[in-house]
Structures are given as C-alpha cells and as structure tokens.
Amino acid sequence: MESNRITEELLYEIALSRLEGIGSVLYKNLLSHFGSARDVFRIPSGKLLRVSGIGAHLVSVFSRKDEALHEAESIIESSARKNIRIVPLRSADYPAALKETYDCPAVLYLKGNGPVAPRKTLAVVGTRDATPYGKAVVTRLMAELSGIQVISGLAYGIDITAHREALKNNLSTLGVLANGLDTVYPSPHRKVAEEMLEQGLLISEQPVFTRLHPQFFVSRNRIIAGLSEVVLVVESAGKGGSMVTAEFANNYNREVFAVPGDLGKKQSEGTHRLIFEHKAHIFTDAAALIDWMQWNTTAQPAKKEQDLSSFSEEEKAVLTLLAERGEMQIDELSWFAGVPAGRLPSVLLNLEFQEIIKQNPGKKFSLKR
Considering the entire predicted model, what is its pTM? Predict the structure, then answer.
C-alpha cells in the first residue's frame, strides 16, 4: 500500500508541475502550505487564494487539473519505457545542492548509472565557438582531476570537450539537457551521451517528448549552476549562455572561476569581464582550484547518529535537518522537512518543551547542545 500511495503522490506532483503558471517557486509555496500536491488539487479555490502568489487568474488554471493528471500519467508511463527516472523535489534522491536554490525544478528526469551530484562537483561551461586554447585548457584540467563529477550542457565547443575528456579520464560526468531525455541535442553528440550513461547521467527538468524551446536553455543553465559547487567559465563572449550560468552561480553563492585568454579574441571578453567585475576568481591551474575548494583535505569522521526512534515522523524530519545544517529558519524547515506551515509551530514547540531544540534570533532554530 505504501508504494501505491507514493505513486499517487508522484502523479499529483508531476501534474502540478505541468500546470501553466505554476513555476518552481509557487510550486514550493503550495506544497509547503498544504502539505502535498494531492491536497493542492483537492483544495477549494477560496483557500488557494490565501497562498502568496496565487491570484484569480492562476486559480483558473486549476480548471484543467484533470488534463494535467492525464498528462502526468502519460509522462510516468513513457518515462518507464525509456528507462528515465522521475525525481520529485521531496524525494530523498533529489540533489541536495540543487534543492537549496530558491527556484529549483519541481521535478527532475534522470537517465544513467552515475551518482546524482556527489560532494565534489565542477561545472565546466563555455562558448560553442571554442578555440584550440580553450579546448586545451579543458583537456589538461580533466587529466589532473580525480573523484570529481564534471557537469556541463552537452553543447558544441567547451561543453562537449569537457564531457569527452571527463570520460577519457574516468570521471563521472553529468549532462544537463534543455529538452526531454528521449532526444539528445545536438544530435551529433548522441554517441557521447550514450557513453556518459555508463558512469554518469543525463538530466532535465523537461519530461519525455518535450521539444526544444529557446527559454529552456536559460532554465537549463540554472540547473547546471545549482548542481555545482564551483562553475568554471573557460571561454565566452560578452553575452551568452555561459555568462548566464555564471550569474546564476553567483546568485546561488557558488564559487566561480574564469580562464583568462587572448585580449584580441571575442572568446575572452566574457571571462575577462567576470574577473574584472570580481564575479569570478582567475583560473590558473587545477591544483589552485582544488586547493581553493579544499577538495584535497581529509574527510572528517562521521558524527554518531542520534537515536530518533521515540519521535514522531515530523519531529524526526526536523531533527535530522537541524543536525545536518546547524541552524534553519522556520520557513526553510517547513519546506525541507515536508511539514505543513500550519503544523510546524506545534512540532517545534513540543521539541522546545523537551529541551531538544532552541529558538534563536531571526526565527531560526537549532539543536540544543
């Protein structure tokens, strides 16, 4: 019965994500407010209007909820046939780093055998019109890395060079697509994409059979930035997708590096601007990047887990989050713990009475040591 319940909720989560006008931020607000996508679909329109960001024009969108549910059923069936995994936002398999971004996708679609955003993640992005110099930088970098997951967009130029060189050096590599995973774009990169599935992943927020649209590329770039600990811009013109990715990375408080290049080439304009405007560190070599990211330090021994057997499921979720993150605001707790905003205050109060947690300034909570 448990698996049936989970499948039903997945159906509603996909359906909610497919409703026009329900973007990722509003999606999170709705789930946080009502507790589940299934409940959102069953709430009277008057209660929907109480949610921040919902107006009468968006309430009317729910008139096509039956159509959205049928579409979700088709997506689930088609994904299964194509060996595509569906990972909704509240799944334990959803990449933690991406989940922390304010506009993370409601649902992800994954294909492949590699890990989903392990601890060490590096996005390598750049122009489609890459120079021999830019490709050489990527080739040398990949040869000097180990235990790193390389993320890029499978595009021409710097992106595909990063994927190919990662494969040559036995690095896990993740390609973020702007279309459904039944199709590889651009098509000449299909062979590389197939090779990536053995030790890496293809990932998209677009369901199977979704055709390309220009706006999807910007959305794709935010996923690349959100999945990564650090973004390296190898070559870029003054404007372009790589610059957009770097902007997202800065907004998400990710580290950004840029490769300096020839002053006379347009492929250096973007990287030089990032460095000049202090939006990126200057990239010199792999060793300096690894040292800056502290990827070569010895991992600390794991902390002894607290016995949570005597707590309710909601209390367990709250305590686990606080143990991992140290301190969180009440709104963050509600979302990441999956506890409805109306229920969370009583859960927190009960834990405070037991002297297990404490409230700090700014409506933040932490474990009581």
Answer: 0.80
